[in-house]
Amino acid sequence: MALKLRLARGGTKKRPFYHIVVADARSPRDGRFIEKLGTFNPLLAKDADNRVVLDVERAKHWLEVGAQPTDRVERFLDTAGLLKREVRNNPEKAKPGAKATERAESRAAAAAAAEAAKNAPKEEAPAEEAASE
């Protein structure tokens, strides 16, 4: 049986509250769990003491048994000092998509054409036309 340390959502609509639980990986997110290890309230300030409440001893036990934490729970365990989480870096995530790149290139081309037209030397009127006017 694959065990997970994960969040189970509680609270009402637009007011999330999570329980940190140990559950079978096959059970639903808010379904059956084996043990509650703590709580997480994302509505509190990041420096609030009771934003994350975690039973460190029980979490350590479940990690020794082989339970795998999810990404978010792994962050909590890292701040508690139980795990060392490696910092992730995905520079590809910030790059715009194909359509946005195409639009940016067309805007740049249009701006360059407008700048070239603005800086181009103006044609002078022929002397004969200027004299007749």
From TrEMBL:
Alphabetical UniProt keywords: Ribonucleoprotein, Ribosomal protein
The keyword Ribosomal protein appears for this protein: yes
InterPro entries xrefs: Ribosomal_bS16, Ribosomal_bS16_dom_sf
Single Gene Ontology BP annotation: translation
Residue stretches of biased makeup (Basic and acidic residues): 87-106
Extent of Low complexity compositional bias: 107-119
The organism's place on the tree of life at top rank: Bacteria
Single GO cellular component term: cytoplasm
Protein family according to the UniProt entry: Belongs to the bacterial ribosomal protein bS16 family.
UniProt protein name: Small ribosomal subunit protein bS16
Provenance organism: Devosia limi DSM 17137
Gene: rpsP
